[in-house]
Design a protein that fits this description.
Layout: H1 2-18, E1 24-32, H2 39-54, E2 64-72, H3 78-90, E3 96-99, H4 103-116, E4 120-122, E5 137-139, H5 144-155, E6 161-167, H6 170-185, E7 189-196, H7 204-213, E8 217-221, H8 226-237, E9 246-250, E10 270-273, H9 282-295, H10 303-321, H11 328-335, E11 339-343, E12 346-350, E13 357-369, E14 372-384, H12 387-393
Parallel strand pairs: 1-2, 1-3, 3-4, 4-5, 6-7, 6-8, 8-9, 9-10
Antiparallel strand pairs: 10-13, 11-12, 12-13, 13-14
Helix pairs in contact: 2-10, 3-4, 5-6
The structure holds P-hydroxybenzoic acid.
Length: 394
């Protein structure tokens, strides 16, 4: 029996060698938020990854496979994320780590991937400096500077004064700094700033302060998902729009999948962002159609889905280019300068210098079109590099 088995194996190896292909399974660790109050954001990643793998777009050489090992960080939990990354690296021996909705979690993983030399492709977390925490990090999502800095410049043409309200953690701090810098440089005045605890869904005390200050515009960043819906509901209930205050921000606050839960309140909100499910590019139309075919006509992909979709494309491309024998240095070299001219969000590339994403930003207005509330893209600011890195280089 034993001899028979090893002969069989030897035969199989010889046969596959003759065919030029050896079975090669590449292990990918996916750290995502599957449970807890913020799980709807993780669901966007889960749906996009599964759809991508099913779509046939992951073109690997014969015999090369991806094994995706999924782990739940349960929300903003840097300690949990760190432990999961440690286990994935040491026990499961993953060759690439990906996923990660939250900045604090990405930051806690960074030293581990540096030490173990494991490439880490970030699908969401958007604080600018994350990519500088490890040479093994590349990002396919966005930075808050990428949306909030051009929003500051653009909105100064429309509004004289603004109030700034942000969730009190990395991406909120970046949104605040970026918007304030650009808005004031373009002649606008920030009349007040408030930082709100990230898990809060009770925005009334903060919004009342804003209402009393009577700014022309309120710039807000809160995390996408249920948090954004709570913010929009609070904005509606306190009657800020009726008081003449325009709500503006990065697209996180009018996240596509939550629009059906926000009623008519977001109509008229102005945002800057790299992705809208309503984008009329052919690649986006087919992406949204495939998503709704798989998950139902009411399932809308948002920017987190697209960040994950493009991350999977990048991972498949670099694994294919190495024939499944993933070398960390080679992987990072391939990720630097990786491009997709046809992402659902438009053309994208990873800046070879910073390993961060370069992409279009779109000025959008939330409108009701044929009875459906959508983020309608109005203007394009082409191929924006993370402004924070551009400034710090100067
Ligand atoms: C982040 O933690 O970096 C983050 C989370 C949710 C967002 C944007 C950024 O909507």
């Amino acid at each position: 029996m034993r001899i028979g088995t090893s002969m069989l194996l030897a035969g199989a190896v010889a046969a596959s060698l003759a065919g030029g292909a050896i079975a090669q399974t590449v292990k990918i660790g996916l750290i995502n938020t599957y449970s807890g109050a913020m799980a709807s954001n993780g669901d966007q990643i889960e749906k996009a990854v599964n759809l991508f793998m099913k779509s046939g777009q992951c073109k690997l050489p014969t015999g090369v496979n991806l094994e995706i090992i999924k782990r739940d960080d349960t929300g903003i939990n840097p300690e949990t994320a760190k432990r999961l990354a440690q286990e994935l690296i040491v026990r499961d021996k993953v060759q690439i780590i990906t996923g990660v909705v939250w900045t604090p979690n990405a930051l806690s993983i960074a030293p581990l991937v540096t030490e173990a030399k494991v490439p880490f492709v970030i699908m969401n977390a958007g604080t600018a400096m994350i990519t500088e925490r490890s040479p093994y990090i590349a990002r396919t999502s966005f930075t808050l500077w990428q949306s909030s800095y051009p929003m500051g410049t653009w909105s100064a043409k429309k509004f004289k004064t603004a109030y700034v309200a942000v969730a009190d953690f990395g991406p909120g701090h970046d949104a605040q700094e970026a918007f304030t810098k650009a808005f004031t440089a373009a002649g606008g005045k920030v009349v007040g700033t408030v930082r709100m605890p990230p898990p809060t869904t009770d925005f009334a005390p903060f919004l009342q302060r804003v209402k009393d200050a009577k700014p022309d515009a309120l710039f807000v960043f809160v995390p996408a998902g249920k948090n954004a819906t709570a913010l929009i509901k609070g904005f509606g209930e306190l009657g800020l729009a009726q008081a003449g205050i325009k709500l503006i921000g990065p697209g996180d606050i009018v996240t596509d999948e939550e629009l059906p839960n926000m009623g008519d309140v977001p109509i008229g909100v102005l945002t800057m962002f790299h992705y809208s499910a309503a984008g009329d590019r052919p690649a986006n139309k087919s992406f949204v159609a495939a998503y709704q075919k798989e998950y139902g006509p009411k399932a809308w992909p948002n920017f987190i889905s697209v960040g994950a979709w493009d991350a999977m494309q990048a991972i498949c491309d670099v694994v294919a280019a190495q024939n499944g024998k993933v070398d960390p240095e080679k992987t990072m070299l391939l990720l630097r300068g990786w491009k997709n001219p046809n992402s659902p969000r438009g053309p994208i590339e990873i800046d070879p210098r910073t390993r961060d994403i370069v992409q279009n930003e779109y000025v959008r207005e939330t409108r009701k079109v044929d009875g459906i509330v959508k983020n309608v893209e109005l203007e394009t600011i082409p191929m924006v590099k993370d402004p924070w890195k551009e400034f710090s280089q100067k």
